[in-house]
Amino acid sequence: MAVEAARHALAGRRVALGAVYFGSTTHPFSDRQNAGVVAGALDLPEAVASADFGGSLKAGTAALLAGLDRVAAGREGEVLTVAAEHRRARAGSVQELMYGDAAAAFTLGNSDVIAEHLGSHSVSTDFVDHYRAAGQPFDYHWEERWLRDEAFRKWLPEAIRDGLARLGIEPGSVDHFVLAEPAPRLAAVAAKHVGIADEAVADGLHGTVGQTGAAHASLMLAAALENARPGQTLVVVGFGQGCDVLAFRITPEIAQLTPRTAVAACLARRREETDYAKFQAFNDVVTLEKGLRAEANPQTALSAMYRKRRMLLGLVGGRCRKCGTPQFPAALRCVNPSCHHAEEMDPHRFADEPARIKTWSCDWLTYTPEPPAHYGMIEFECGGRFMADITDWDLGQVSVGQPVRMVFRVRGRDAQRGMIRYFWKAAPLATAKEA
What is the pLDDT of residue 433? Predict the structure, then answer.
């Protein structure tokens, strides 16, 4: 999800990034730079800085603040901040109904900004409304009444008031108030105590997306920017063992923003899953019998993964220096039958190239979490082709010649050693899942 959100944030722009910051409480790896995986999937230069932020639901705004501070300090390059979350919940629990998965990303810089950062204010308060101990799969929650009465009616409004006062912003002048509320209608409670108008309170997205944890403030900010107008004041609050209060002024540049897939568009083309058993299986709430063909558990060769990191993470192949023929993977000899030039190739990234299905098949015997397994030959318009898994298709919808886009997904899991293997798959162009 983080990679997909980052690709949309960077779409149509040439950005020299100096850092990638990734906020989440459900990073895939506890001891591997997850932001580095995102940078690798985007094929960023290895000189880019990367850092993970976690430990609280305000990890997303913490990453955003760190990025803004880096930009304000005049460090070289823009900053990409990403927040993503995929929390598990017990079967039949309230959290299972409330939780959603999402990711959102922003680029931060000093020129042509669509929202000027006016300043921020942070508070650290060890207010525990829920927690998840190390090694535990599920959150433990305290009463919602405690959350409402003690946090959203007392110390949180005070922290927001202090932040606005520090920045010289009158509560009544706030046009968009984004508060990553952990439960519906709590943002309106806090806004009322601060003096922010009811109509300024942003939609919490609980009815369409759910509560998306560390990604929620960033997701709501992205949704609010879709309707923001130049000159308006936007306040974002990240909540979790304290709070981060960030204020922005919308600039005229927002009208020049390159069209991109945003929250409303993603929701409009969503695909609903009505099979509860499948939902539980995908979230590892129940254990499935996967059959004999799923028992193979090959060890990931870390040395080979490192040597081929641009190919595996960035989908980088080669382009012949003599005839210009692209191919994947890169080789020492050109595949063009009229060339066969033997020389090291120039790197060529295929992840964003338009492509089509040249051949395909579906397999009911190979294990896949959502059978049947679709795979086939993907041919890129620029030239070059390779065999790939085909994902996000319903049975009977795949056809030769259909346009596809490449998406960064889990290719396999080594459960015995805790390794998640990522690679690129082909998804339908018009309805590729944004998550």
Answer: 41
